[in-house]
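User: Structure with pyridoxal-5'-phosphate, tokens only please.
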Amino acid sequence: MRLIRARIDSAALRANLRAIRARAPRSRVMAVVKANAYGHGLVPTALALADADAFAVARLEEAVALRDNGLRRRIVLLEGVFNAAQLAQAAQLELDLVVHQPLQIELLEGFGGPKPLPLWLKVDTGMNRLGFRPEEFRAAWERLRRLTPAPQQLRVMTHLACADEADDATSAAQLQRLRPLVEGLDAELSIANSAGILALPASHGEWVRPGLALYGVSPFAWQRGTQFGLRPAMTLESTVIALREVAAGERVGYGGVWRAPRPSRLAIVAAGYGDGLPRGIPSGAPLLIGAHRAPVAGRVSMDMIAADVTDLPPVGVGDRVELWGTRLAVEELAAAAGTIPYELLCGVSQRVPIELV
Ligand SMILES: Cc1ncc(COP(=O)(O)O)c(C=O)c1O
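Assistant:
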């Protein structure tokens, strides 16, 4: 038996894809599987979602892994390529490239490949991270159209900066900046991330780009994925490896930051920052031991975390613990730890085996 594992529910992944299609019925879905599919396992997740219209990754190596494992669908390289060798490799793998800076246009102009690559011109409508500024957009578009051979498809992408916040004004301003740029262009648009898909139908365009929602999790701090009919795909489970009684006043763990307020019983669980738990999970944050919630007691260490089980029915070595998943929302633990579910999911470390069911 494995002490810790991330159980991935492939039926939940597929149900979430269907739920996203229902919310954006006129859009095709580009499944965002970068960062090891947000910790869910790049290849198994993409294969489980083989029905998606395309996949999006951030790094060339991620696309290589998908092609090596037989994924023939469209793969969009969200950050594009940075030198001629990468461009040649991307062409050989038949990837779609995002073009967000002049260097990438120069590479394409110097590329003598026989077959044009599908391109996504990225415009910066307010995120101020990647993309051509609105005033540079038309010139970039024209340069791409003049490539030889001409690109088979030239599409437009932008990214929403604040769609996951209760701040509709920024998203509206971004859409307003985009509209005149693409007026009259024969170009498919991709704008919406999960938050745009769930809350901003005007952002749907021809292609939506869900990441977090595909994994059944909400991008909004005030709502859970389940409230949108999504199903959490990952359950991170571990095991109680020891039990310990402490007297009132005894301190627990590194730094002794938790002090027993009464004679207490602690369960030591095999999960720590070496598995990807943030060290910022505070005392009092919940774990689920068997069917019962128990508060964390003391600092997260590399391989272990302690929970106060004084008030629980008897707990034994070998009992299963849910760190997050179907019964304890990752959104809740993220909030308790002062982070976001993205960071918890992406942080699951390499030593945690992924089991797709
Ligand atoms: C360009 C781009 N599109 C889409 C996404 C997916 O975002 P989300 O996971 O919020 O749906 C990301 C994720 O960071 C992204 O960088």
